[in-house]
Amino acid sequence: MTEDRLRHPDGAEYPARRVAGRGPGWYRGDVHLHTTLSAGGELTPGQLAAAAREIGLDFVATTEHNTTAGHGEWSRYAGDDLLVILGQEVTTHTGHWLALGLEPGHQIEWRYGVRDDAIDRQLARVRRGGGICVAAHPYAPYESGTLAYPYRCFDAVEVWNGQWRSDLPWNADNEAALAEWGRNLGHDIHRGRWWPTLGNSDAHLAGQLGTPHTVVFAEELGVDAVLAGLRTGRSWIAGSAAVDLAFTAASGDRVVGVGERLDSGGEPIEVRLRVYGVPSGVVSLHTERGTVLRERLPADGAGTVRWRTAVREGGFVRAEVRHPDRRMAALTNPVILA
Question: What InterPro entries does the entry give (predicted)?
Answer without folding.
Answer: PHP_domain, Pol/His_phosphatase_N, Pol/histidinol_Pase-like
